[in-house]
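Same chain as my last thread, 453 residues:
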Amino acid sequence: MKLWDKGIGLDAAIEAFTVGKDRELDLLLAPYDIKGTMAHVTMLAAVGLLTEEERDLLLPELRKLHGKAVDGSFVIEEGIEDVHSQVELELTRALGDIGKKVHTGRSRNDQVLLDVKLFTRAAIEKTVGKVRTLFGHFQQRSEELSEVLIPGYTHLQVAMPSSFGLWFGAYAERLTDDLLLLHAAWEQADRNPLGAAAGYGSSAPLDRAMTTRLLGFSEPDYNVVHAMMGRGRLEWTVAVAYASLAQTLGRFAMDSCLYISQNFGFIHLPDNLTTGSSIMPHKKNPDVFELVRSHCNRIQGIAPTIQAMTGNLPSGYFRDMQLIKEVYLPLFGEMDQVLDILDYAVCNLTVEKDLMEKPLYAAAFSVETVNRLAAAGVPFREAYRQVGAAIQEGSFQPSPDLVGPDGKVTASSLGHTHIGSTGNLCNDKIAARMDAVLARFPFERVRSAMEAL
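reply #2:
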């Protein structure tokens, strides 16, 4: 069955090529396609294009189909082109000609864009929840390890003292920035395209405000040409936001790969979270971080792929857009998997707590020693010269007052008290920022509307 069938047979090779992976990928969209149809049917009855009796027959059948789509028993049959065709076929089987009326005032163009937007909103909500969990664990590790110093690096050379509190806390704050981009992407997904039809509207007396309200959108895409130009643009925008998140997670994974190596030895994974070598019996490989890094690199490649697929298209619809599903829809499952496993690894990491007592890292305290000389009245440039000369001669010793009461140098004994430093992590401020960003997502409004359908 094809919604555009006019009684002319289609060449089998052309059919196979043009259908592509739609039957497989449209199963992901099926729950949202059915919800969109429920809103559309409700609106058609309200404007007189369906009777109330027809609406009351269609909605229960659609709810049955939605249940099948959610539990996985909904199928797109062989010979059926896509989810839209399968839904209409099921309704026609159950209700006869009434089922053939649901496409009134609609095109597959605005229908698939609606499905993708509804799918995207739900996927973003799931991702945001996982980001929030990881954020909490980053902050938790930051607080519990706030006093434990590690060497900071520039140019991969030992630079100045840092801390596990700063390291974990930095990635927590970075997640707040990622969610700002994700919220911008959400706002594009949270506008209703239904009623744009093939991109030029419809002569049917559609109530687009009604479907906007029924589906929990903040507002419609007003201009119908603009709405249709959202295909490809929406997916690219969302992929850019996910690329930002992937960059953060991938960078943490890269840090972890370095820090877990014997050359650094800053952090450790339990043996049962590492893998081995088929030839080297001593190996305990951090494959989890290496694969997170690679997944994140692949995710970062999705946005430029979509841009390349759509960058030379004029306004209007073109079949090129069908292929976007193949790179876009799998993005969310991959990201959710990365967030889950990275969160699990973060919670199971252990750290070395006496790193900065090693002579290897003594030079990291050179700036602290220079600053103490300067505070005692030595001109900064002269203090710099003196400490530099001592390092060159091999006689440099960190200032004795860097050592705390317990005989160790800790974040507190460094005396860094300004905003965001080792002694003043500002995790409470960062948590407040995260709460403010999370509050921008109107998840409850959307859930309420979708449940009401």
